[in-house]
Amino acid sequence: MSKNSDAAARERLVARAAQGSFLAGLVVLWYLATNAWDVSPLLLPKPQAVMRELGSVLRSGEFVGDLRITLGELGAAFAISATGGLVLGYCVSQSRYWTRVLEPLLSAVYAIPIILFLPLYVLFFGLGPASKIALGATISFFPIALSTVAGFASVEPIYVTAARSMGCSSYQLFRWVLLPAALPVILTGLRMGFTVALLAILGSETISSVAGLGHRIVSLGENMHMARMFAYILFVVAIAVSLNAVVSALELRGRRTY
Amino acid sequence: MDADQVAIRVRGVSHEFGRPGEPHYVRALQETSLEVVGGELLCLIGPSGCGKSTLLNVMGGLLAPTAGTVEVGALSVRGPMPQEIAYVFQENALFPWSTVVDNIKVGMVFQGVPAREREARARKALQNVSLADFAEHYPGQLSGGMRQRAALARALALDTGILLMDEPFGALDEQTRMILGEDLSALLASERKTIVFVTHSLGEAVFLADRIAVFSARPGTIKATIAIGEPHPRRPAFMTSAKFHRLRDELYSLLHDEMRKTLSAMQGGAGGGEEARP
Amino acid sequence: MPTLDPHPPGLLILRSPAAARLGVIAVLLGTWEIAAGWFVDKMFLSPPSQVFGSLDVVLRTPGVTEALKLTFSQIGAAFTISVAVGLAVGLALGFHRFSHRSLLPIVLLLYGIPQVTILPLFILYFGIGSASKIAFGVSHGIFPIVLTTAAGAQNIKPILLLSARSMGASSAQIFRWVVFPHMIPSFFAGMRLGMSGVLLGVLLAELYVSQAGIGYFTTLFTQSLDPTKLLGLVSLLAAMAIALNELVRRAETRFSRFRSV
Questions:
Q1: Cα distance between residue A164 and residue B62, in whole Å
Q2: What's the CA gap between B160 and B81, in Å, rounded?
Q3: What is the DSSP string of C140-202?
Q4: Confidence of residue A3 (pLDDT cuts 50, 70, 90)
Q5: Which phi and psi (to 5°) does residue B53 adopt?
Q6: CATH 3.40.190.10 is held by the domain A59-254
Q7: Do the Cβ atoms of A203 and C101 come within 8 Å?
Q8: Are B81 and A144 in contact (CB under 8 A)?
């Protein structure tokens, strides 16, 4: 009914307007608080100052070194956890027995905030990227492994029967039946693993590190360079949100035919 | 496969699931012997749980029987025989992540058909089931009847001499079943395949089959065989003929007692019910 | 048709998955024990036998038990606040269609931000004492509660409300007998996620900077290169986290048995 869709469209527009004005209102509040209402710049820097610092950071390319370190850690951690999680997940899924044994164990460990083990990793690997990579890989391993097990375990038996009746080999079964059938669930797990790895790496950089974006924010704060710190925070948030958006889009693309 | 040659020879096949004494033990099929003539359409019909699907799976090499042998031509059946036997299942066995034409091609990949032949054979199979316009669709976008046509196309593209069909039209509404039945009959007339067809529907069995093997209640065996004696392609007029009704009545009287037995066994809490599937 | 035997051949004891799980854990601990004993520098990894023995020492280190209690109370406070505020906000957002459509996406947006980047800000604003730990815990735990409560409030079938009204129920009665029972499962699911969030937030803040909480001791043990005590402390914390998670999970299962109509 065109009336309903008109009403729906109007509602959406109003909702968008409300969101926009809410966010705009926050910015206005921020401006007033720092410029008109005497909130200390040591607590909350002026938005203009933050923007200026952000511009300076971007133009000077100062962020490049830290960004490279952080993204490098993320890439390495994700590569390790994805490979390990996919392989282990597949192997476990092929045995109903081992699935029943190991799946609850993996879930239980995932329920603990594994970042708790950061001090141990730092003790073992030092303050450099190795501990971040190791921790990131450990944390993101679990959602990937769990979803791989779930994905392969959820393949409808009829597909396997049909393929076998047509004479498929084990490799053909994997490539043409098991993998495509399990893919939607696996992609979700990979997306979750990525998100969680990013959080783990930023977190461990914040808590104990000598380099990377997380560390940069911390050291700026310690030296009370508030405006620049806020600029970096905005920068890192923007990067994180964009990365997550890209990964989500990839996940949706991979699931499109289902 | 020449007519009058035996395409499938079933000798003394019986099957049990589990071991006696176990809670899920089931005697699915009693000693059964059967000869499927080349080029005929043989229907297997019987009450729920009588073992007809089990026998079909044994014939196709998907299930190793507890006793007995099956021969296809000169070969002994010991596992799936993709070169000789193609399957059409009741449930949707098309891969939802591939288009219809890709589904058909994948079947040929499994069977080992060289790449250059796959496209042409796939297109031809789709033509034969009147689905050529839907080649690039995904199974999820098709109706139940069209999906089963696609499944049939996949089986036809494999170009086997034998087609095993396990209640392929079971999930469809009656009108679609009738149309698909007519099409199958027309196909049989032109392609000279041997088809073994499991069904619950008496009308479908009489309309499609050259011979009907009637099963007894679980644990089942073939109780009787009815010959239809009507050439393919079957006309819709056949369905309203006196001959059709006579044969259907004969089938019904053979089945009726077995169906009653199955029902009372189920109500007696013997744990019957669904057809045992491997 | 090759099927997998649910009872694989082998040791009878391994037939029970629970026993097998214990077996897996035992094998892992055994490998760790051997590795720590023979291969790895004792400075960095202690064998589990030593760690187990050290638990006693750890607990007797002055300040550790107090620190554990403090952290536990921080978690408790953060959780209570998250639930109280989260419930209120979630209900408000869930019931009014307009606020649901307009404000909820903002909540989702905020939820998507990696909060750990603003951890230093929390410390700057709330100090290095318990307040910042509780605040950071709340900021992690509140979102799942708001989101699940709002979702639970949203998807009540209108037919239920209609039939209650047709029987003459007042708004209060409708809330008590229709809305409230309907929302219990989602609420408990939210609480479970909220507890995970609170645990994460409080522990992250503690690890970052701590005067008297367990974060103080993790830093201490790290800097004094004492892997045994560190492992002991971290194990205790992990055990606490598991226990708390399990508690909330059981509450969820128990209360979700009241399946709403």
A1: 8
A2: 10
A3: HHHHHHHHHHHHHHHT--HHHHHHHHHTT--HHHHIIIIIHHHHHHHHHHHHHHHHHHHHHHH
A4: low
A5: -65, -35
A6: no
A7: no
A8: no
pLDDT digits (tens, 9 = 90+) for C233-245: 888 888 888 888 8
Q: Give the pLDDT band (50/70/90) at residue B271.
A: very low
- Amino acid at position C229, single letter: K
Q: Domain spans of chain A? A: 2-39, 59-254
As a whole number of angstroms, the distance between CA B168 and CA B161 comes to 18
CATH assignment of B1-84+161-168+191-229+260-270, among 3.40.50.300, 3.40.50.720, 3.40.50.880, 3.40.50.1580: 3.40.50.300
**Residue type present at position B117:** E
Q: Are B233 and B179 in contact (CB under 8 A)?
A: no
Residue C87 DSSP SS3: helix
ipTM reported for the complex, 2 dp? 0.84
Which residue segments constitute the domains of chain C, with CATH numbers given? 57-256 (1.10.3720.10)
Query: What's the token pair of residue A185?
Result: 């669930």
In angstroms, the CA A4 to CA A75 distance is: 47
Which tens digits make up the pLDDT trace of B46-80?
A: 988 888 999 999 999 999 999 999 999 889 998 89
How far does C29 lie from chain B, in Å, by closest CA? Answer: 38
The span from the CA of C238 to the CA of C255, in Å, is 26
Hey, which bits of chain C come out as E strands? Answer: none
What's the token pair of residue B60?
Answer: 């196709």
Whether the CB of A238 is below 8 Å from some CB of chain C: the reply is no
Locate the domains of chain B by residue range: 1-84+161-168+191-229+260-270, 86-159
Residues B228, B206 contacting (CB under 8 angstroms): yes
Q: Which two tokens stand for residue B100?
A: 């219809």
Q: Are C129 and C211 in contact (CB under 8 A)?
A: yes
- Strand B85-88 relative to strand B162-166: parallel, antiparallel, unpaired? parallel
Contact state of A165 with B60 under an 8 Å Cβ cutoff: yes
The predicted structure's pLDDT at residue B275: 46
Is the bond preceding residue B219 a cis peptide, omega within 30 degrees? yes
Interface of B with A (CB under 8 A): 60, 62, 80-83, 85-87, 89, 91-93, 95-98, 106-107, 109-112, 138, 140, 158
Side chain identity at C68, as an amino acid letter?
A: L
